[in-house]
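Reading a protein record of the kind used here takes only a little practice. The integers have meaning only within a learned vocabulary of local backbone shapes. With that in mind, consider the following protein and its fold in token form:
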Amino acid sequence: MELTRVYKKLAEAQFFLRKLTEQERQMIGDMEPFDYYLSAFLNAGRTVDWRLHREQRVIYPTWRKTWDANLTPQEDSLIKFMVNDRNVEVHESGSSRSVAHESVEFRAGTHRVEGGFIDVVDGFGPPGMPSAVLSKPTYHSFTIDGAERKATEACADYLALLQKMVKEFDAAHP
């Protein structure tokens, strides 16, 4: 069975997940690319299912119903969430992920961080205490079934499900 374009979309989703993970580590610089990578990831992931449905329209819908019936409630919920979040991202107001901030402490000296270097001058605060505290954006959460999940971890789990789905479909239809 010819699934080259489906596997290409899986690879594209993997590429954007790597970019999301890299961007998530950024301490300084432009944080907007995270939104772009998330949008591209959601679109690539959704296209995996769309291509299977379109290119294998005779056998895929029935196979997919059976496959879905064997998902755990958490897997089913994750797939539905990601599909819905992609639809909101594309057609409405943007992804539902939240942005928060975490404090990162630095002592005096030069510190290498994702995106560059930070120089911290000593002399502020009591001895032994951090000389600087920076606020770093974190793209840590989707709320899925009432629980907060780190966005990149939810995306990684979603990609793993898509990979499993394609592998099992491919094995069932050589």
